[in-house]
Amino acid sequence: MSSYRTILNSVKDGLLSVEDALADLQKSSIEELGFATIDHDRVRRKGFSEVVYCAGKTPEQSATILKKLAERGDCNVLGTRAEAKVHELLLPDIPEAQYDPVSRAVYIYRGEQRREGAVLVAAAGTSDLPVAEEAALTAELMGNRVDRLYDVGVAGLHRLLRQLDRLYAARVIVVVAGMEGALTSVIAGLVNIPVIGVPTSVGYGAQLQGLAPLLGMLTTCAPGVSVVNIDNGFGAGYLASMINQLGERKCQ
Amino acid sequence: MSSYRTILNSVKDGLLSVEDALADLQKSSIEELGFATIDHDRVRRKGFSEVVYCAGKTPEQSATILKKLAERGDCNVLGTRAEAKVHELLLPDIPEAQYDPVSRAVYIYRGEQRREGAVLVAAAGTSDLPVAEEAALTAELMGNRVDRLYDVGVAGLHRLLRQLDRLYAARVIVVVAGMEGALTSVIAGLVNIPVIGVPTSVGYGAQLQGLAPLLGMLTTCAPGVSVVNIDNGFGAGYLASMINQLGERKCQ
Amino acid sequence: MSSYRTILNSVKDGLLSVEDALADLQKSSIEELGFATIDHDRVRRKGFSEVVYCAGKTPEQSATILKKLAERGDCNVLGTRAEAKVHELLLPDIPEAQYDPVSRAVYIYRGEQRREGAVLVAAAGTSDLPVAEEAALTAELMGNRVDRLYDVGVAGLHRLLRQLDRLYAARVIVVVAGMEGALTSVIAGLVNIPVIGVPTSVGYGAQLQGLAPLLGMLTTCAPGVSVVNIDNGFGAGYLASMINQLGERKCQ
Amino acid sequence: MSSYRTILNSVKDGLLSVEDALADLQKSSIEELGFATIDHDRVRRKGFSEVVYCAGKTPEQSATILKKLAERGDCNVLGTRAEAKVHELLLPDIPEAQYDPVSRAVYIYRGEQRREGAVLVAAAGTSDLPVAEEAALTAELMGNRVDRLYDVGVAGLHRLLRQLDRLYAARVIVVVAGMEGALTSVIAGLVNIPVIGVPTSVGYGAQLQGLAPLLGMLTTCAPGVSVVNIDNGFGAGYLASMINQLGERKCQ
Amino acid sequence: MSSYRTILNSVKDGLLSVEDALADLQKSSIEELGFATIDHDRVRRKGFSEVVYCAGKTPEQSATILKKLAERGDCNVLGTRAEAKVHELLLPDIPEAQYDPVSRAVYIYRGEQRREGAVLVAAAGTSDLPVAEEAALTAELMGNRVDRLYDVGVAGLHRLLRQLDRLYAARVIVVVAGMEGALTSVIAGLVNIPVIGVPTSVGYGAQLQGLAPLLGMLTTCAPGVSVVNIDNGFGAGYLASMINQLGERKCQ
Amino acid sequence: MSSYRTILNSVKDGLLSVEDALADLQKSSIEELGFATIDHDRVRRKGFSEVVYCAGKTPEQSATILKKLAERGDCNVLGTRAEAKVHELLLPDIPEAQYDPVSRAVYIYRGEQRREGAVLVAAAGTSDLPVAEEAALTAELMGNRVDRLYDVGVAGLHRLLRQLDRLYAARVIVVVAGMEGALTSVIAGLVNIPVIGVPTSVGYGAQLQGLAPLLGMLTTCAPGVSVVNIDNGFGAGYLASMINQLGERKCQ
Amino acid sequence: MSSYRTILNSVKDGLLSVEDALADLQKSSIEELGFATIDHDRVRRKGFSEVVYCAGKTPEQSATILKKLAERGDCNVLGTRAEAKVHELLLPDIPEAQYDPVSRAVYIYRGEQRREGAVLVAAAGTSDLPVAEEAALTAELMGNRVDRLYDVGVAGLHRLLRQLDRLYAARVIVVVAGMEGALTSVIAGLVNIPVIGVPTSVGYGAQLQGLAPLLGMLTTCAPGVSVVNIDNGFGAGYLASMINQLGERKCQ
Amino acid sequence: MSSYRTILNSVKDGLLSVEDALADLQKSSIEELGFATIDHDRVRRKGFSEVVYCAGKTPEQSATILKKLAERGDCNVLGTRAEAKVHELLLPDIPEAQYDPVSRAVYIYRGEQRREGAVLVAAAGTSDLPVAEEAALTAELMGNRVDRLYDVGVAGLHRLLRQLDRLYAARVIVVVAGMEGALTSVIAGLVNIPVIGVPTSVGYGAQLQGLAPLLGMLTTCAPGVSVVNIDNGFGAGYLASMINQLGERKCQ
Predict the structure, then answer these.
(1) Phi, psi of F246 (to 5 degrees)
(2) Which pLDDT does position F48 carry in this prediction?
(3) Most C-beta atoms within 10 A of its C-beta, which of C137, C237, D194, H188?
(4) What angle do CA H132, H133, H135 make, to 5 degrees?
(5) How far is CA B80 from CA B197, B239, D127, in A?
């Protein structure tokens, strides 16, 4: 979209016909697979290639899309909520593809892209780890240094308070919590940086598959908190990376 | 019901006794199977035979009803949400019966009934395809030309904007979208024809099995939108056909 | 958007500079009021000028926007959910502005634009009239012939059945119903044309401000039904007009 | 409880010591199984033995309770939502025990107890049959004549209207309906007898596992309707029997 | 509808032309007021004239409809949820019209129509009285003897237990309860007659305007209970009368 | 109920006729006011006289009931959610009646009944004070020493941590919190005594009138917490008193 | 936290360096397992070791944590919602570990710690036993005498009333109830001690997986009731123990 | 908390007694007003003084707290959701206090603190302005340059697309939208910076006071989005400032 001016200039200079200009605007950044329309332009627009949400797609569809993304550039590539089958299908063509069974992520990691600031991922309990790992892995794939602080729920507040230094050392904090999600409010009350709350569906009954901590995080009394969808570790890791890298640009 | 006058006239002219008139009103268009009461009158009333919702019925029940419908007329016949088993049971008697595993539809297609106007079925993501295909197939079975525009969600808006010509060429648009369903609003803001939103249950957490896009489509800021039930591709395809064929009448 | 090609051609022919082309694309169809950005292009895009939702705006804001819309073209103009105050503020400048206290609509009606087909607006009970009138008035302002069929709820089914002729005479039916909203299913079972359900908030307790009929209409067993938001008479009237006028174009 | 006076009289007459009176009040009508406290008094109090809700109990627990109930009296005995396993466990001891796989009811039927009035069980669709059969079977076991009227949903209203005579012949009507449940309102508008609505979980999406018809039936515009829990065929059959037999007393 | 046969016979005998027959079917029992379609046939069909739900209607509309109903027959007439204004507007024409400020009912009571059986209306707390009185008044107007048992909530169980005789003397019981509505289960466990639960919106917080007792009554462990809408005293009184008078017919 | 044995003994000894015994069981502890059935027995059963929930009652009804309770014993008397009007109506007869406008409680306080243990009432924010004061006042009226710890929400954790001594000094803690209610989890993680959570409706949007902290408190990760209804300061104060006084008995 | 003063004194006396003091504050009571941060301090703070919620953890993770807890002290140890696999993994190292398949609890029981007062666990129905047993077992493990009163739901009130003595003999009562949960209100109305309500997910339809009894218990008309999460037998047993042992201290 | 080391060092050096150290830790940063506990430490911890949420407080309470905050430092001070009355009470003491009736904010603005990066606040419609202005004003008070882009909802997509330059010029974007809130997804799909969604309660019916856009924003298909509470303009502005100023520190 930002290249409209370039194309208009080419047209003006006679370097590009009107018909070609129209075609150009549409063609280069998009690949049609029939069942999917790959948005290769996203690397340019968002600084990271399209991330494939594998749930609801067949393993074959997921693997095909991931392969196309991997072939196109040399950025890292990520598929979330993937069965191990996706990884198996990918391996023959992309031997460096990896799979993390905890977060159910399949990914291709290319090159060291550590940054100055760090993303801290805090998790309230052991059962929250799959979501926390999805967040941590996403942030790492996007080139961030990640600090993991797990099982520090508020029922044993001293577990958290003895780690204040790590909280203070981060540039942005992702808080992953199920049950009632109070950890988000407590951490946000202690620091002066953005806190991204990720409610998880860990719990039962009135936890309502994550609605309890979702509502709790949205209505927190501590300022500086925003929230992503229940169990959306990917979204939190992505946003944390975006905040951590504000002004920089990755993987040209 | 519209034939009350005819029957009254026959009674007046002595061609029909009162008792027979009463019986006539009830009998001809209905077939009793014990577990089902087939409404053969629906072809006349609605322009398409009764569509069988196979979920919650045994494959045997579904197959029996479909067979009865197929025997009675020469319209196309459709069963939705069917297991492959229904198709298998149907094949010995109706060899031309077909099954589409994506949309889980079993159907009998008889004759070319293409129309002028076209129904456009747009889907936001690959995971929405089962619902989109149910809509597309239903519209095709009811004699419409269908244009499929898949994986054009708003996260990559240019994928949609480069297809404006196809949007403008339709007479009615079905928009199938999960997640937050924003595609419906965006498309409805661009065109001047009816848009039928189909929220899907694709997503997780606060998506609430489709409630998020359902509420979103209902409260859209773009006029010209109406909504059918979550995942109800059939209902959208049926209504789209009805709108596309307003004033015409199919399969006498 | 469809005029991109025109502008590109002008640029190519040297009739338009690149800078001017960019400005042109943005300027002509939009008017900035500070608190509002009027979309004058909507008449061209949607066949009817922007409709002003007056709730949540000050009467002064509503009246200013309506005035701007009225000055720009000679289409009919509509403001919904307006206090009488909006009308009073409008009258000095637009003496032909009218106000309907039942539907709380303020509008400017210019010229006879009757069509062939008719929109039928059916309402289940007397308490549903404000919503039904909003639908009927909207459809009339958009140039449709409207037939009103009120207080025909299913608790007294014969009130409806004796009016079958009027149901059959319509091209599209808007059904406005509160309580449980069963009227929509019953009417849709009787006709072969699109039915637009408008659930209303009439009722109490488990009616949940309209959620009961909303859910009911969405899950109707009768095909050919789609639904708009609770109490959204405007949306239903607008869509009914769109369906009734498919292929035609109003108010160039 | 009503026998307090008797016991008080016995105490007064010296026929019963105070300690024994206290014991008597508690003992005779109750049987302790450890995991269950059988209420044998219910036959006297409610006219039918305790009905065993088998879901959530082990088949062994269910079978044991049913056996105890069968041994105690000569009333009919009923277990609802039972796996076939319960029946198998029961057969060696109670060979006359029967099992109905549609309604998942296990029961022991002893003797002909037909009544004058009839309970009509109407069901909207074939998928509603398991619930409808639970209602019908319960009413039959409690000694009522039951008329079944199935697959008469409002999408084909004439299927119902041609059966008005059967509606008029009943003393109480149970209406079993999923989807939006409009059948309840339509039937209640046609008759002058109590109508018991049973919403079912048949449907998907906005049907919300039966909440849509539940809310619809509760907010019906037709008087004379009351509602039982979603899928609660047993409750409806039980209440229908109670209404049908008002003033009579069964199985002394 | 039951008079179809009569009309058909008249047509057959030449006593009625087809056109007149059609008109007859529609006209006699219905009166058009523009904003309302009065269903005078309801006395014949349901044994009681149409009851006017005054909420959402203007007092003038309510009074007009009530007047029309009063003029037509000599049955009792009832308007629910009415402001005192409706009564004032009615008085000049119908001086015997009465108004009950507790239940907000306006009514015209004509003649003593006491029955054998009694309807018991039990209310859990003083705050539930408006709903309880609406139920009691409705049942009285429909010719039933009503016994009122108020403020007997389960927090003081002995208040109820000392009144068992009155429970046993009724033919049908209406239980009106807010808070958690447990009174319904307790009473239904003690008696052998139909119990109609009316949840009320009395309470706050998690009572959710009556949803708590509504859900509670629907899921009661005691058989023989059905439920009407929250605060729907009228519906419960109406149904109780219907059950109490099964087989009888009122006000020919 | 526990006096059944006494009455049985009197009957046995001929000191009491059967009829009188029955009457006695019912009469002494209950006073009928028509609109209310006062449970004077509650002092004996529950250790505190019936508390009057004044919302939904007329001020006259509330004042009458409070007067009756005050006349009967010499316990403290409490009415909650009362308008000042109730107090005014009470003053002429009960000059020592007091009114607290913050908690909207009207009460009669008779005598010093301080206890050993203390009830701590902690409130997260200033807006939670009306509920916190209702809890504190209730506990004081029931004879407890109350320590108030207000405005110590988790957004500024040190406000709470510097008060650990007061937390440790209590026997039972009531935590009153709106927004997301995280204070309950944090406090329960720090102490070894029962914590009663009172969610309040303080907040907006996703706070859902108190549902957010209600769900949060119910799903807390800290053991030792139980919850009362939203804004139910009375219930929490009452229960806190019960726990604080376990084994003791007040106001014989 | 309460040992801050001790550490400060050691620092002041030169017995402890500042760096060591900081380390000490954090280290002793916490054990890092990578996936979990064990809070060994909880025995001191809460009087019972950390209880392991095994759902959402792998059996290996659960077993490891339980082993660490067992090794550290000689308190009883408890894991809830555990598969039998956890027990199997634990047995080689901790042969005295036990498993209860009804409540799915794995536990290590060391020594007789009976108390004076008793915890009564009442359950409404047989299907509620898994939750009731979790409560009972938890209370027993924490050293309480537990009385079990099962299958005493209000549909047969006399089953409860004949057990009043057992109700009166308890110091605190846990009421476990599914369906509508009315048992909680009834019991709380009869006794003068704290009642902890545990709603269960037993039921279907409008029971909404336990929301119906949850809302009912929260809005009970009987004072002295508080509520824990749906199916949270552990939480109720833990709190009941805390109340029963107020002022005492267990397992130093 | 981070000053623990300093205090420990002072104690070690004998400069501070243990008792004084304990007092110091608690006293300096907290001011007790009885009804409130002011957290003066927040400027140091969070970079901005405590913001007063005035809803639910009396105007007198709000004004007192604001005055205390203003006296203590020379930072800007902010009170949200304030009546004009708060401003009036503040003016005599703090004449430079200002009030904005659109966002209902009362504030004290001290000195120019413009930053490099800009916060863009985009609003979908005119009715969303109160929330958008609360966000914009908060960000300005915290020292950010704010760009306002109002009334650019997706129903007229070109209104937004012509402003892409302003989107690209921001460092962080706040998107305020009611109805279905689709603007958030569309903007997030176009940019490569953090987007904070603020759902508003603008709309009706299925908009459910903001739940529809809340759910929609949480489930957006565009990465880089997080969400704050419905109508929480303050929270979004605060977080946007935090992100915009990452690494900087304001108002020492």
Answers:
(1) -50, 125
(2) 78
(3) C237
(4) 65
(5) 19, 15, 14
How far is it, in rounded angstroms, from Cα D134 to Cα D101? 10
Taking only the tens place, the pLDDT of each residue in B140-188 is 999 999 999 999 989 888 889 888 999 999 999 999 999 999 999 999 9
> Looking up tokens 């250790």, which residue turns up?
F47
- At D64-92, the pLDDT tens digits run 999 999 887 678 899 999 999 999 999 99
* Contact in structure between D129 and D233 (CB atoms under 8 Å): no
Any CB–CB contact under 8 A between B130 and chain H? Answer: no
A192-219 average pLDDT score = 96
Q: What contacts G3, CB < 8 A, 6 or more positions away?
A: none
Tokens of E34: 């523009």
- Contacts of G55-61 with CB under 8 Å at 24 or more apart are G55/A127, G55/A204, G55/G81, G56/A125, G56/A126, G56/A127, G56/A178, G56/A202, G57/A126, G57/A127, G59/G83, G59/G85, G59/G86, G59/G89, G60/G89, G61/A126, G61/G35, G61/G36
- pLDDT-derived band of residue F220, with 50, 70 and 90 as boundaries? very high
> Bridge partners of F79?
F52, F106
Q: What is the mean pLDDT of residues A56-70?
A: 92
Query: CB contact, 8 Å: G11 with chain H?
Result: yes
CA distance G94 to G86: 12
Which of residues D148 and F36 earns the better pLDDT score? D148
CA–CA distance, D24 with D16 (Å, rounded to integer): 10
Neighbours of chain D (3+ CB pairs under 8 A): B, C, E, F, G
CB of F173 within 8 Å of a chain A CB? The answer is no
Q: Which amino acid is at F215?
A: L
Query: Stretch E224-239: mean pLDDT, rounded?
Result: 97
Does residue G27 carry a pLDDT above 60?
Answer: no
pLDDT (average), residues B131-141:
96
List chain B residues with CB under 8 Å of H226: none
Cα–Cα distance, G128 to G124 (Å, whole number): 7
What is the predicted pLDDT for the residue at B24? 62
pTM for the model stands at 0.89
Neighbours of chain B (3+ CB pairs under 8 A): A, C, D, E, H
Q: What is the DSSP letter of A74?
A: S
- Asked if G132 reaches chain D (Cβ–Cβ under 8 Å), the answer is no
* Chain-centre distance for alpha carbon A201: 18
**Is F210's CB within 8 Å of E205's CB?**
yes
Q: What is the DSSP string of G132-197?
A: HHHHHHHHHHTT-EEEEEES--GGGHHHHHTTHHHHHH-SEEEEEE-TT-THHHHHHHH-SS-EEE
Residue A26 Cα, gap to closest chain B Cα (Å): 6
Nearest to G243 among F51, F164, F243 (CB): F243
Question: Is D149 in contact with D133 (CB distance < 8 Å)?
Answer: no
Tens-place pLDDT, residues C155-189: 888 889 888 999 999 999 999 999 999 999 999 99
**What does the alpha-carbon distance between residue E127 and residue E133 come to, in Å, rounded to a whole number?**
11
**In angstroms, what separates the C-alpha of F15 from chain D's closest C-alpha?**
10
* C179-208 residues touching H, CB cutoff 8 A: 199, 201
Question: How is residue F51 written in tokens?
Answer: 């508390």
- Check CB contact of C46 with chain B, cutoff 8 Å: yes
- Least Cα distance to E86 among E69, E72, E70, E67 occurs for E67
Collapsing DSSP to helix, strand or coil, A120 comes out as: strand
Looking at per-residue confidence, does E112 or C72 come out higher? C72
Distance CA(D78)–CA(D138), nearest Å, equals: 8
Q: Cα angle at H3 between H1 and H5, to 5 degrees?
A: 110
CA distances from F147 to F85, F122, G239 (A): 30, 8, 22
Distance CA C159, CA C148 (A): 14
Please report residues of F whose CB lies closer than 8 A to that of D9: 18
pLDDT at F1: 32
